[in-house]
From TrEMBL:
It is found in: Cytoplasm. Residues 6-76 form the DnaK suppressor protein DksA N-terminal domain. It comes from the Bacteria. GO terms for biological process: regulation of gene expression. A zinc finger (dksA C4-type) spans 84-108. This is RNA polymerase-binding transcription factor DksA. It holds the Pfam family DksA_N. Keywords: Cytoplasm, Metal-binding, Zinc, Zinc-finger.
């Protein structure tokens, strides 16, 4: 892959990680802020807890995505970004645009998903 495109993906990944970390900070500030649990009504308190649980599930998914982004940034540094970890072939730029953290080309990923369907995973 051309150095300009690698730099484009590095910036894309770095922007995404900064965005996710910002969201995590905002969530932490909202959940620990004053008055966050000042709902005397049980129904309001239940709604608050449901919303908090939902938000925490989202942040957990984002935490996992942050780890994948960091791995992708590491692959950029190592010079292996855009190379399929299964077959060693190039991952298409179109696929990287859709999923910048991917580690497999579309053919290998499709094959893996077909095998998972057969096994019932």
């Amino acid at each position: 892959m051309e150095p300009e495109r690698i730099e484009y993906f590095r910036n894309l990944l770095q922007e995404r990680i900064n965005e996710l970390l910002g969201e995590a900070d905002r969530t932490r500030n909202v959940m620990t802020g004053a008055g966050a649990s000042a709902f005397p009504d049980p129904a309001d308190r239940a709604t608050l807890e449901t919303d908090r649980n939902f938000t925490l599930r989202i942040r957990d998914r984002e935490r996992k995505l942050i780890a994948k982004i960091r791995e992708a940034l590491e692959r950029i540094e190592l010079g292996t970004y855009g190379v399929c970890e299964i077959c060693g072939g190039p991952i298409s730029e179109k696929r990287l645009m859709a999923r910048p953290v991917t580690t497999m080309c579309i053919a290998c990923k499709s094959r893996m998903e077909d095998q998972e369907k057969i096994r019932g995973v």
